[in-house]
Amino acid sequence: MLVNSITYDAIRDEIRRAFEARGYVYSPANADLAVAYYASAAPVMDIRTFDYGYDWRGFPRQYVDVVQYTQGTVIIDVIDPATHKLLWRGQGVAAVDTDPNKFARELRKAVDAIIAKFPPRS
Fold first, then answer.
1. Is the four-CA dihedral 17, 109, 48, 120 of positive or negative sign?
2. For 42-51, which contacts have Cβ atoms below 8 Å and span 24 or more sequence positions?
């Protein structure tokens, strides 16, 4: 993730807004779901270094796992906070721009497209 407040805030806020638009309510004290996200402006992203304490496909995130991703890849993981098991993974791509405001807009679009695939709250 680019380390600047514009892109960080854009993706975090858009994830929350997109889930709320699907009927979910933000409640950090009593969460039924946890969300982790990854975004990169680089053509390769090694998610091994982003350990949120949950499993992926039944394996702990404590091994070397280098994966090739397209530049601008955005990954959103939905996790069971009680078991730390990955429940759902969505992935998309945002057009990378050197202008942080333009990149933030692209991140928002990517987040919306990803979360549109997540089931709405019933």
1. positive
2. 42/71, 43/68, 43/69, 43/70, 43/71, 44/68, 44/69, 45/69, 45/73, 47/75
Q: How far apart are CA 75 and CA 62, in angstroms?
A: 19
Per-residue pLDDT tens digits for 85-95: 899 999 999 99
Q: Is 105 left (phi over 0), alpha (psi -120 to 50) or beta?
A: alpha
Q: Where exactly are the structural domains of the chain?
A: 5-115
- Location of structure tokens 């992926």: 56
Q: Which amino acid is at 96?
A: V
Residue 104: its H or E element: helix 100-115
Enclosing H/E stretch for 79: strand 73-79
CB 78 within 8 A of CB 33: yes
Q: Which residues contact 42 (CB under 8 A, 6 or more apart)?
A: 71
Average pLDDT across the chain, whole number: 83
Task: For residue 56, give the amino acid letter.
Answer: W
